[in-house]
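Two proteins were folded this term; both appear here.
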Amino acid sequence: MSTATNNPAGQSWECGAPVLAVCGYSGSGKTTLLEAAIADLVASGLRVAAIKHDAHGFQVDREGKDSDRFFRAGATVSLRGPSEQFERRGANSLLPLEVTLARLGAEHDLLLVEGHKDVALPKIWLCAESESAPPAEVTNVLRVLPWDGDRRTAFRDFVREWLPGAWRARRLCGGVLIGGRSTRMGRPKQLVEFDGRTLAEIVATALHGVVGAEAVAVGTGELPATLAAMPRLADAPGFAGPGAALIAAHRWAPAAAWIVAACDHPHLRAEHIEWLAAQRRPGVWAVVPRQADGHPCPMLALYEPQALEMLERQACMDAERDARPSALLDLPQTLLAAPPEGLADGWKNVNTPQELEAERVRGTGNSRDRK
């Protein structure tokens, strides 16, 4: 399967959050602008990380403090306080920029980089007092902000316009979940037929209609012969619960968003997947639809990489290493949304032969009504 992605940022690596660099020569006002912009963005509910580049080094600790003594002895030092944390690395353990961005992208909505004008990142260029344009060798400049004018407002308006598109343009994958035991159904759900197709085929067709070749089967269950060529992932080893499949998907494509679907939704169509994908927006890490009875449906839902990263961290802290997507329902970044009335049938699931037969009868009745 191809791992190519539509990357609006233009960088040569994938990152879990959109990245925007603010560049300009010394004295152009980069720090002043970023300080104000970060306050605006955080006030709007976004989680923002700032990465500062300084060729002259930093003064970050006081000589003689325990932390400074540890650092000078050769250690990487992590300082933890009641409301803050700081990590100090030496020359022998510096992380490449792309690794830093990947780490921060797993838990933020937007990464703002000060400097790094020579790196293939999307950029805002701040003109110094005597400038009117960036130098020709600086690439990927999306907007130039002149010295004069309200740059704080101009930057805020640009981010409001740019960020939603950058968020939605990140890689979107689909997972057909085939790892359930199907004890109530009495046989593997993915092989059960409904209207001439197996439930696995119904789910795969719906996902393919939106994510194309980025759809994979996740789990160790048997696939119908018609899906034998579909790429497969095993559940993440060492984890229990349905979230083991989501962790496996995240590890396979850690910067991607995933729409996952269990094989118990006989009415699922591409329109349902399109509706899920349309709910993506900055600050929302998971979109979990509510069924007609009001119950959330975390196994037919959309998860951004930030949510999947959190799911794995929570599972690692659980004594049984139980990975439960329902643990994400209380996050402020989780959107619990009721699908439009015309799409509510997509989240109707079947767990027993009796429920399956009832849906067959209901489907026949609906077909007669349409005639």
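Next, the second protein.
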Amino acid sequence: MTFSIDDNHLHKTTQELVQINSINPLLTPEGKGEEEISAYVADSLNALGLDVKRSEIAPGRFNVVGALKGSGGGCSLLLNAHMDTVGVEGMTINPFGGELKNGRIYGRGSQDMKGSLAAMMATAKALIDANITLKGDLIITGVADEEHSSLGTEALVKEISANAAIVTEPTDMHLCRAHRGFIWFEIETFGRAAHGSRYSEGIDANMRMGRFLAELDKLEQELLTRKGHKLTGPPSLHAALLQGGTEVSTYADRCSLNVERRIVPGENMDDALAEIQEIIDRLAAQDSTFKAKVERTFWREPFEIGHEAEIVQTLDAALGTRLGHLPEHTGQTFWTDAALFADAGMETLLLGPKGYGLHSAEEWVDMGSVLDLAYILTETAIKYCGKS
């Protein structure tokens, strides 16, 4: 039995999704969050006949889950996209226009990742239109808050599980099997406040942070020379935020530094912390007035899946059939919700459409690749879940 993707429905859905303000309110005050867009997605999936649940996972923040129930005996497959976007300040196009021009749809979130969400919905429609009954369940999920803290997926994996998950983050139609994780550290150096004229009393926390930064710079350079991971590259870090002192005529009694450390698959979180602590210990041994501490404030694990996994093999074949060539297997330097699905025990990978301008002044998604994505997801669902 064959199927087809309703191209007109796919374009219309993508445009209407882009036209909804779903900016993450934790990122910018004008953000509307997922209330309106989640209602749109829930209504659309209900109209197709899926079993739909819309959940408020935090005040004004919503997830949507639509299940196309299988007949039984097959593997279950979860498709995922986030519904929130970053802000629109500085955009040079109408962020909510959803304009279709030269095969592209323009607007905030068009590639990241409302085109993907539309492709997932088109997959469910294609199966229903063709009267194809899967053996395993197909689960369509739209989640909140990926652009900030991933509250949506954190809540989702506590309630929903599947044998495999495809996160449809934009990958330019490459099959992504790994990405880096991150740790946020806060480092504090401590001094002694005193009037600027009293050099014998004051201990400058800012100067001591300078010593730490000099050593941190050496660690950064060393990280970039490490072998790293074949798909994600080497680990890295950067000094993101620095604050110290109260006024110009006073020795600073405290200085605070926020550091982000990007970790690759195979690295250990505790080892990354130990590298920072080793710098502090070494500087303290050199000078008894050097006092500092480090705290790990937030972190996300890296992600990878092997080439031999069944979902990788199935998606790889579907990509080859649709695109006419074997797909490139890649890794990403950024973090995604894929790590949370993998940690929850699902075989997970990433595949998403081509486009341009994530988080930038002009964003668009290539609708030819969104159509390809819908065909590939549908073929993958049939092969992976089985057909009755």
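The chain is about 35% helix and 25% strand. Residues 153 and 337 are 7 Å apart (CA to CA). These notes refer to the second protein only.
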